[in-house]
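Input record (one chain):
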Amino acid sequence: MQLSKEEIQNLSNLLLSQDDANTQVAFEIMKHNTFPKELITEVFGVFKITNNKNLKQQSKEMLEKHASKGVHDLMKRKFPIDGKGHYGATEKTIATNIKRYGWGNHINSYKLAIAIYNKYGAGANYLLTEGSLEQRKQFIKSIIKDGECSLPGKAFTKFPEVLFHFPELTSINLSRNKISTIPAGIKNFKNLKRLNMSNNKLKGMNPAILELKELEELDISNNKYKDKFPTHIFKLSALKKLNITNFLGHYHKTDFPEGIENLKQLQEFKLGATVYNYYPNFPIFEIITGSPVDTTNPLSLAWKAFQQGDRTSIGFILEHGSDAQKKETLDACYDSKSQKMDLSEIVLSKIPDSLLQYKIRDLNLYNCGIGLYFKEKKASNKKAIETDKKNTRILSQLTDLESLNLQSNQLADLVDLSPLKKLKNLDIGQNEFLEFPKQYTELNQLETLDLHLCTNYYHVSVKKEEILQALNNLKELKSLSIYFYNLIDKENTLFKKDLPALLPDCKINQ
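The corresponding structure, as predicted from the sequence alone:
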C-alpha cells in the first residue's frame, strides 16, 4: 500500500525521534506498506546511531533491500557521528563526518544531523552552519524552551547569527564554544536577562551590549581577553549576577578598572583568578554575595569574601589589610595542633612577615606566585634574583620549620635556608632558579628533598658534579626527586651509579 505524503512525514518524525519505541512503531508500519524511498536517510540514521541491536538489524535489512549501492557502501564506513561516552566524537568531527556521509547525495545530510541531535544532543554545529536559513530557524525554534536557547559545547567559532531572528529570547547559553567576539547584533535581544559566554575565546565585546537594559546575569568567565578591559559591562545597571573569573588570558595581569561600583543591584559577583592572571589592585574571590554586593572598597570586598569562607581573597588582605585582619586570615590557615600553616594557591606578593607571630613546623606555600617572573614575565635576571631573595627573606627566621613546600612559585632565587636546623622536608621543585640551588646544602638533617625541574629551562645547564657536591652532606636523605632538562652528564652515570653510591639509603625519583 502506498503511503501519503502526510503519512511519510509522520514516519519521518518517528524515525528521527529519540525514543526507540517510536522507531519500532515506524518500522512496523513500513513493513506492511510500500517502502518509501524518501525515508532512506532516516533508516540509515537508525542503522548508524542506534544502540538497540534489534532496530539495527531491522534497519540493515531494509537498507540492503531498498537502498542504492552508494548507500550500501556508506553502511560499511565507520565515521563517528555521535557524542556519546567519554570518547565520543567532538562537534567538529561530527560535522565533518556528516558531510562525508552526504557525499554523492545518497543520504540527506541535514536529516541525518537532525537524527543525531535528537538522539545524542550532538551535531548542532552542522545544523547551524550548513543548513539553509529556514532550516536553521526551524532548528532553533525546536530547541527554545521557556525563552531560553542553550547551545553549550557546539564548537561554534562565531556567535550564531540565526539567533538574531529570535529577539524575544530571555536567556542565551553559548558556553564552551570557540567564539571570539560578542557582535553588534547582540542589541537585538531587548528582553534578554541571562547571557552565558563562559569558556569561549572572547577577545572582543561590542559596546552594543549596553542595549541589553534587562540583562541581569552575565557570565564571561574563562576566556582569553587580552585587549583593554571592556568597562562598558559596568554600565549594565540591571546586572544582579556577574562572573568574570579567569576572564583575562594566561600570563595577563592588569589593574582592575574603575566602574564596578556602578553596579548597584549586584547580588552575586565571581572574580576568581590564578597566579597567572590576577589583578594587583583588586582582590580575587570565587564568589561573594550580598543585597547588594558593595564593590566601592576593594579591601572591604576582600574581607567580606573571606568572612563568607573564601580563601582566595586572603592574599589581598595580607598585603592591604589591618594587623587585626591579617591575624584573623592567618589564624584561618593555621592548625595549632599540628602547627601547620597552609597558604597553598593563595596569591602572595611576598611571604608575609606576619608568619613570625606563629610557631610553624609545616609551611605550605605551593603555587602562590611569589617569584617575580609570575608578576613580570620579562623581568631581568638580576632583578628577579634580588626581588625573590628579598621576598623570601622571612623564611630564614622561621627556625621551627620541619617541612617547607615552595613548589611552583617561579622563584629565580631564594634566601639562604641554613638557619633552619630542624628542617626535614624541603620541596623547591618546578621553579625558575637561575643557577643550581644550594641553599639547603648545610641542612644535613633533611630526609626528603624535591629538586624536580627547579631550574630555568632557557638559562641553566646543570652539571653532574655540582649536583653531587650539593648533596654530599645530606646523608639522612630517604627520598630525593630530581630531574633537569639541561643536565650535563656525558657518561650518563648520575642516576645509575653516582647518586646510588652517594645516597645508598635514599629512594631516588626522576
